[in-house]
Amino acid sequence: MKTKILIRITLLAFLITASGACSKQLEEKPVSFVSPDNFFQTAQQVETAFAASMNFLWNYWGGYSYGYGSFIHDDQLNGGDLNLSASHGSGLWNIHYRALVNINAAIAAIKNGNLQGVPQADIDRLTGQAKFLRAYNYFMLVRMFGGVPLITEETPDPIANPMPRASISEVYALIVSDFTEAANKLPASWAGARGKPTSGAAKGLLAKVYLTMATAPLNETGNYQKAADLAWEVIQSGQYSLVTNIHEVFSLSNKYGPEMMWSFNSTYDDPATDPQIWAPENMDGWGDASVNPVWEQAIPDNPRKDAYLITELNGVHYADWDAEHVPYIRKFLYISQEDFDSYASTINFPIIRYADVLLIYAEAANMANGAPTQAAVNAINLVIDRANGYAPVAGHPLLTTAMSKDAFDVAVIEERNQELCFEFDRWFDLVRKKLLREKNPEWEANFSENDYLFPIPERDLRLNDLLEQNPGYPTP
Question: I want to staple 432 with a disulfide (CB 3.0 to 4.6 A). Which of 165, 215, 305, 385 is the partner?
């Protein structure tokens, strides 16, 4: 006991002495320190802000890398019921605003002239990247939450100066402006820097923005032509093409291939969430993200279904499996067995790919012209033909100009449903086309028009009295 007391007294004396020494050191004036005002002095430093912003959105067990739960109430994923909790989507709200802090700081530094000695061409490319990333973040936010606080590089500290939600139209105005500037300032490709946003990706996403603005909730139909024109620019550029073999679309060899226009990037240094989340227990997976059997049964049997879904293992249909009796997702499992066994996924997760642009063009051109044009038919048939293995498939025919505008539109949305499955895109199509109720008949009792928006997070409502909650959700 005496020994322990002596040790404690000695340790206390040491801590007091050390504390005094630290106090003296802390009284000295620092030679320099890093702040947002003096950090962004080089192009490399600005790009660290871009990397940090993307890391919020895509990281090991975080963001969209494990984000399927925020979109589980679509008709593709298993486990949804259209009962959206008061905290639904709050994690995505948080990571997007964290990303925006870094992006706005970089934009402010560029505008303030911090990059002394950096060539104007490099400054333009940095500005293009910043505006691209900011537009993408707000595009995700406005589609999930509606009008949101619109924080830019010119906004006073939003903590000390709370602000209300901007209107949906105001948010889209910034998105259009930023993507337009990005399209004009970004290169068509990056030498030795694969994965950075390009002018083609900016145009593809801007086409998607216009398509969304043409549908609910804005329903500004004049934007159909704008969407068609931009998508056509991407198609005519020759910069992108479909991967010929449907089984190779998500292979590691094509993670920066001709179809991937912009994606979340994964490497061995910074892998995605373990690939086991997409696989059933029967193949040593964890069974986290399974597929709605009702949805799977409505998909025609063709090579794409086999490439994108796991419905059989060793010739045994999922209905007869020993454990789970639901299908699973194959399209994110085109990795080596070694990677799967070591819990590493270096596959890239698409944000915009060329198949999406073809379908954007088909939808927008049909709606803008009041009937399917030959160019619109050709665009969607490229996707259908590949899905069918370039051979006729019963129940999944090529489309024609003889179809009515409405019938063609339904076919395009269904093709998006099948081609872009599990890429967190279906939810937004169901929302903008007002199809939540129609495509989720088993959850009729749970449906509400309020489901088309996620709730504003409770924490933000408590911290900012100027924020208003979306209809149908509790206000603290």
Answer: 215
